[in-house]
Amino acid sequence: MKIVYCILGIFNSGGMERVLANKVNYLVDRGYDVSIITTDQKGRPAYFNLDSRILHIDLAVNYTDTLEANIISKSLIFSKKKRLHKQLLAEQLMKLKPDITISMFDYEASFLTDIKDGSAKVLEIHFSRFKRIQYGRKGVLGLIDRYLSRRDKQIAKKYKRFVVLTHEDKGYWGKMSNIEVIPNANSFEPNDISNLSSKRVIAVGRLNYQKRFEDLIALWRTVHLEAPDWKLEIFGNGPQKRELQALIDTYGLSNSAILREPVKDIMNEYLTSSMVAMTSRYEGLPMALLEGQVCGLPMVSYCCKCGPKDIIIDGKNGFLIDEGDLANFSSKIVQLIKDVALRKEMGLHSSQLSKRFSEEEVMRKWISLFNSVV
Q1: What is the pLDDT of residue 173?
Q2: Hey, which of 32, 91, 92, 197 would disulfide with 27, CB 3.0 to 4.6 Å?
Q3: Distance between CA 365 and CA 187 in Å, rounded?
Q4: Structure letter (DSSP) for residue 109
């Protein structure tokens, strides 16, 4: 079976890119013919290792070149780039003749079903139904966000299958005959779990608006007063790096809260930590929690849309915190720091519950979907 994935780029260290890399490597090992078509790679290498049998084609549309333009210029340039994108993508699909083409809800999502190359079209979203409006933008941009959010549902209805990551998110999309829930799989399966003895809380994610690391840094002031020998280490990069570092310096936490560059061997970082924290505004199904869980870490997370409720059973393998409740969040971290027995109990439950997201279990669902649409 020949499968094509469409995504903006594979150069980022994000969760979606990691999930895609794991998925395509799994599929080619089992005899599938897999290609990835990107629009904005710009010659950069893939961040995560890809099997040499996977074909990567970049269309060099480069949507991200327009990010700094004003709204009028951006609209005109975007329309031109989208027409070029459709033309170039259609040419590649006609050459490749895939059985299935999958959009990861990037720029091709709105027109992929119009390309009549004979492949079954599948849409896969890695964020929640409310991603666009969770930016909380006002004025013209807010109106555009709400319009695009309504349009997303009409786009999704055109696909043979529409895959969301959680049952929570499925409910937000309403009644759709083509919708299916397939979660992300664990990124790795460690031989052992963390012994939870290190004095480190780990957080992982892009340093941007979505991840709301400013809350985590702010609440760490309270944790630092209660446990000055513990450290918070945030692994990631992104547009808010300087802003977050300035916040750390302003709070006098430069020796306690540390921004780290992304690392490819993130598993080892989880295994040498004692809990994972997440303060996101929104998610699809957060890889940071899945990865922390499979390494046997207790988790403390905002109960945002979507994903934390599908991973954390409150009080069993971690704590779910109301968004913006910094006092409760810091209190739960301090509780886990001081109560070693609770920390180990929750860590053990995390390891046990991680089996729900094993690669074999998740990929079995994907292969079943592939067989059903061809």
Answers
A1: 95
A2: 32
A3: 16
A4: G
Distance between CA 122 and CA 108 in Å, rounded?
Answer: 12
Q: What is the structure's pLDDT at 137?
A: 84
Q: Which residues, other chains included, contact 344 with Cβ-Cβ below 8 Å and sequence gap of 6+?
A: 196
Closest CA to 8 of 72, 82, 58, 78: 58
Mean pLDDT of the chain: 95
pLDDT band, residue 47 (cuts 50/70/90): very high
The two three-digit tokens of residue 130, written as one number: 């409310």
**pLDDT above 80: residue 332:** yes
In whole angstroms, give the CA distance from residue 320 to residue 308. Answer: 7
Q: Tell me the CA distances in angstroms from 213 to 177, 217, 232, 270, one per residue in order.
A: 37, 6, 11, 18
CA atoms 338, 339, 345, 350: torsion sign:
negative
Is the per-residue pLDDT at 69 higher than 90? no
3-state SS string over 191-224? CCCCCCCCCEEEEECCCCHHHCHHHHHHHHHHHH
pLDDT > 90 fraction of the chain, expressed in percent and rounded: 89
Calculate mean pLDDT across residues 205-219: 96
pTM of the model: 0.88
What CA–CA distance (Å, rounded) separates 282 from 48?
Answer: 24
Q: Is 141 exposed, middle or buried (0-12, 13-18, 19+ CB in 10 A)?
A: exposed
As a whole number of angstroms, the distance between CA 37 and CA 89 comes to 8
Nearest to 36 by CA among 142, 128, 108, 110: 108
Find the largest Cα–Cα distance for the chain: 62
- The answer to whether the beta carbons of residues 150 and 334 sit under 8 Å apart is no
